[in-house]
Amino acid sequence: MLLLRYLRLHGIGGIGIVRMSGDECFEVLNRMFRPKKIDKIENIKGYTIKYGFIVDNDEIVDEVLVSFFKAPRSYTTENMCEINTHGGNIIVRKILELCLKNGADLAEPGEFTKRAFLNGRIDLLQAESVIDIINSKSERELKTGVKQLEGILSKKIKDIKQEILDVMVNVDVSIDYPEYDVDDVTNKQILDMLDSVQIKLEILEKSFDNGKLIKEGIKTAIIGKPNAGKSSLLNAILKEDRAIVTEYEGTTRDTIEEFVNIEGIPLKLIDTAGIRDAKDEVEKIGIAKSKEIANEADLVIAIFDSSKELTEEDNQILNIIKDKKSIILLNKADLNSILDESDSRFSCITNNIIKISAINGDGLEMLYSIISKMFSLDEINLDNDIVITNLRHKNLISKAIENVKNSRNTVLDGMPVDVIAIFIKDILEDLGNITGEVVTDDIINEIFSKFCLGK
After folding, report:
1. pLDDT 10s digits, 189-233
2. pLDDT above 90 covers what percent of the chain?
């Protein structure tokens, strides 16, 4: 089957790319491409580019460069070509239609990477890292995705599997030749192996805490009463006028969400409606949503007007952040401050109290520093550590750990070696599901359906 997909950002761009892959790729190309220098396909080397024109019934459609990739040395391991055309909507669509007219079929989302996986060029774990790289929101997430694409995690999983298989050789001998009394030796080897495998798997499982931070970021709610400075704080962090700031209370009725990076970790900032006793029904909905977001957030930044005494609304906000991971900001430090960091009403909630001025940016660096310490961002070392960022991988590793424990129990309970082997093989199956060796078609289709068009 011949696959076709065009790659281009939405809207008009300098260059659009139409990509084809499959056995008949070059035949379809020959029906519409007129190179400046005519050459037979068999004489064209892979990883080369030819200049020419796309034509439709001898009428020139566009001036293009075509990249040639010959099997098996291509992304999909099949014959591939990429038509680099001008990026106008009409031109790209016309070339796409010509490809279909001449025998190509449209590819599904992620089908090129799916072909690379099915043809054995990459494993499933590496394939999933492609979408992580595309969707990365920070340098750390990008770096993690690239390392997994290089096969760092795949190799770790493979090494753990090999450690299990080395012992399974003796297990199989015990099953096939029961007349030889090797159970005691085999059981000791199994227990030693299971202990070693469990330690390695638990290290990978624990790395998901950091991996989740890297991939999903820190969900951070900014709460406070109207005019405390929530929107001003958001604008100051983003260094742009993203939220409306006025002297009137209740300007923010709904949430505003934006991402910023702190030490390579995405911080998902959510500016919420000011919390107060509102009469307006729309504002009431916004306030209820503010409280819900604060309850679900990884971090709550509560902002107070330090130039005014605390009100009942402020006390309500303090009650919301009680027992949550929080930072208190005493805003408007550029004015005459009434409130300060030593106030016991704040210190009984958290030790993270900062005086800031959202208008001129004072105190923001201290805010970033505290967030970094709270989430130990400086301890995440991507150079030496393998980090799990995918929930599917984490769940399978957790399942494998449970099967390690079950396997140990069967040994300690004196179960026959063939029963022990069943539990050990469950561990291998869990690990094989991560790399795609034993994964089902449904899971494969679900994974690749999340890919963008053209990849």
Report:
1. 899 999 999 999 999 999 998 888 888 888 998 888 888 888 888
2. 41
Q: Which long-range contacts (CB under 8 A, 24 or more apart) does 420-427 make?
A: 420/171, 420/190, 421/168, 421/171, 421/172, 421/175, 424/164, 424/167, 424/168, 424/171, 424/190, 425/168, 427/164, 427/197, 427/400, 427/403
The separation between CA 420 and the C-alpha centre of its own chain, rounded to angstroms, equals 37
Mean pLDDT of the region 278-296: 71
Q: Are strands 299-305 and 80-87 parallel, antiparallel or unpaired?
A: unpaired
| 417-450 residue pLDDT tens | 888 889 999 999 999 999 998 878 888 888 888 7
Q: Is there a cis peptide before residue 72, judged by omega within 30 degrees of 0?
A: yes
Tokens of 43: 């004489």
- Give the C-alpha separation, 214 to 205, whole Å: 15
> Residue 10 and residue 223: Cα distance in Å, rounded?
35
The Cα–Cα gap between 96 and 17 comes to 10
318's tokens: 């303090």
Query: Which residues face 6 on adjacent strands?
Result: 18
User: Which of the two residues, 247 and 104, has the higher pLDDT score?
Assistant: 104
Burial of 29 (0-12, 13-18, 19+ CB in 10 A): buried
Phi, psi of 212 (to 5 degrees): -65, -40
- Tell me the backbone φ, ψ of residue 379, rounded to 5 degrees: -90, -5
pLDDT tens per residue across span 27-78 = 999 999 999 888 887 788 999 999 999 999 889 999 999 999 999 999 999 9
pLDDT cut 70: percent of the chain above it: 86
In the chain, what is the straight-line distance between the N-terminal and C-terminal CA atoms, in Å?
17
Distance CA 207, CA 304 (A): 36
Which residue, among 422, 401, 13, 421, has the nearest Cα to 199 in the 3D structure?
Answer: 401
DSSP state of 38: -
Look at residue 244 in the predicted model and tell me its pLDDT.
43
- CA 140 to chain CA centroid, nearest Å: 11
Residues in the chain: 455
Number of DSSP helices (H) and strands (E) in the chain, helices first? 15, 13
